[in-house]
Amino acid sequence: MDSTLERSFTGTSLPKTSKPSASWFHKVSIPWFITVFYLTVMLLLPITALLTKSISVGPAEFWRIATSPVALSAYDVTFTTSLVAGLINGVMGTLVAWVLVRYPFPGRKLVDAAVDLPFALPTAVAGLVLATVYSDKGWIGQFFAPFGIKIAFTRLGVLVAMIFISLPFVVRTLQPVLQEMEREIEEAAWSLGANQRQTFIRVLLPPLIPPILTGVALGFSRAVGEYGSVILVSSSIPFKDLIAPVLVFQRLEAYDYGGATVIGTVLLLISLLMLLVINALQQWGRRYAG
Amino acid sequence: MPGKVRLQQPKKSLIGPPLLIGIAVAYLALVLFIPAIAVFYEAFHKGFQEFLTSISQPDFLNAVRMTLIATAVAVPLNTVFGLCAAWVLARNRFPGRALMISILDLPFAISPVVVGLMLVMLYGRNGWLGPLFSQWGIKIIFDTPGIVLATVVVTLPFVAREVMPVLEDTGPSEEEAAKTLGAKDWQIFWRVTLPNIQWGLLYGVLLTNARAMGEFGAVTVVSGNIAGKTQTLPIFVEEAYKNYQTAAAFGAASILALLAVVTLVLKELLERRTAKRGIGH
């Protein structure tokens, strides 16, 4: 590793003044080789294996599995719930980021640090504790049970898990933007006679839209692929609260490789699409940042 | 920002802040704080003895061992790769660079279950390379190598992604200066590059470590879930919970949660460190 990072001459006897082009090959060889080799073996090869396996079932069969009723219902649960979780965090995450940046209050540091908990806490632990706390007799679930609202082991449980794991994204993408925003702009708006709502909607909000949407998209993307916390907090019953990643897992456990790879491929393609959307949103945000 | 004398805001805002703080904290309490406290409460409310019995059973200890093995491989491997990839991407402009960054980010975007599925399709009995490896007597899927591999893939981008911006910020000038002064490549790396990127690198290693110990989805798919043999700690949590061994589930969960808390504390310390460096620059 050590000798590779900044390799400008071959280590044999080339003079120090040798042109960069003469040693270009040596300069890049080892880190480049490791990077390309590693990405190929660890990512591209497995992805190709999955894609070829799923294509090998044939287009008609692929379409039949990808649009089978149980798959469609699983997409519905996955995407609708992820979207709702993303939107809730879009609003509440914006509020949390705003409060953390603008208002000093006792314990703010602690609250700020705790926002990262969903990144650090293993998803199985999150699922376990959410299932416990939001069950009928749990600390929070008991307050909903009298109204006939069951949270754990229903779609609402899936929603709570998805909200949990996608919570930090909006806060963390928005926070730096809010910190850099100059208060003078607001003051200028006030001094020109804008009231608070006008200042917020016309002056503050526009530059915040790209980071909020980026955070929502990141959270949505994470929620769509989530498995660990959802498997523990849902009952994984088809047509009820079964999400697509769990369906992939169930198919694989039943040795239905066609079913698993086709639905897995659908999920993979949606992840790639989300990656493009997120890149585009980040580019848009950079334009605002100037 | 607070504390300074500012232009008078329009009146209504005086009740605004406490209300907004209240709503934000209540939301975080419902989703984050109460569940976080519940982990430790459930693990310890029957007394420390119960906790000790639940975490001294052999299946639990085997799960700890497996988690440590996977982490011990994934962290160094992805650190070396991460340094190489960060250098390649930060110090070079080449066609396909954006594509390479997107490929690097894939493990963040792809569902862990799909990552596991990909590995099964490559190394499983019906996979491309599975038969080849089994000829040599190597079993990957449903065994330790598969778990290690899944952990490596899901934690692949962290170090590269954290080191890359730091390398971009510092620029190559110091390294070039060292070079003209006659430093050897390894000297440049240890004495110039590494001190510059050390906090970013540590941050990346920290995130890799946390994710490696906590990974569940990808590992479950390739583990075969054989108690005492191919279970990691998170799988142990799920298995114990499903079998109504709540005490054991929360015992293991509290240890993983403690790990998360330690990670957050270290992260906070590292962030303070880098922030100070930034100002002092």
Main interface by residue count: A-B, 96 and 101 residues
Instruction: Please compute the radius of gyration of chain B using only Cα atoms.
Output: 23 Å
The gyration radius over C-alpha positions of chain A equals: 25 Å
> Roughly what percent helix of chain B?
over 70%
**What general form of chain B does the structure show?**
globular
Parts with pLDDT < 50 across at least 5 consecutive residues of chain B: 276-281
What is the helix/strand order of chain A? HHHHHHHHHHHHH
N-to-C SSE series of chain B?
A: HHHHHHHHHHHHH
Q: State the distance separating the first and last CA atoms of chain B.
A: 22 Å
Mean pLDDT of chain B: 88
Number of helices of chain A: 13
Low-confidence stretches of chain A: 1-25
Mean pLDDT of chain A: 87
What can you see in these coordinates?
The complex is a heterodimer of chains A (290) and B (281). Helices cover 74% and strands 0% of the residues of chain A. Chain A is mostly helical. Chain A is globular, with a radius of gyration of 25 Å. The longest helix of chain B has 35 residues, at 246-280. At the A-B interface, helix 1, helix 3, helix 4, helix 5 and helix 6 of A face helix 1, helix 3, helix 4, helix 5 and helix 9 of B.
Outline:
The complex is a heterodimer of chains A (290) and B (281). With 290 residues, chain A is mainly alpha-helical.
Q: Which terms summarize this structure?
A:
heterodimer; A: 290 residues; mainly alpha; 13 helices; globular; B: 281 residues; 77% helix; disordered C terminus
Break the fold down into its secondary structure elements and pairings.
The complex is a heterodimer of chains A (290) and B (281).
Chain A: H1 24-55, H2 59-66, H3 69-102, H4 108-114, H5 117-120, H6 123-133, H7 141-144, H8 155-180, H9 183-191, H10 196-225, H11 228-233, H12 244-253, H13 257-289
Helix pairs in contact in A: 1-13, 3-8, 3-10, 6-8, 8-10, 9-10, 10-13, 12-13
Chain B: H1 16-44, H2 48-54, H3 58-91, H4 97-109, H5 112-123, H6 130-135, H7 144-154, H8 157-170, H9 173-180, H10 185-214, H11 217-223, H12 233-242, H13 246-280
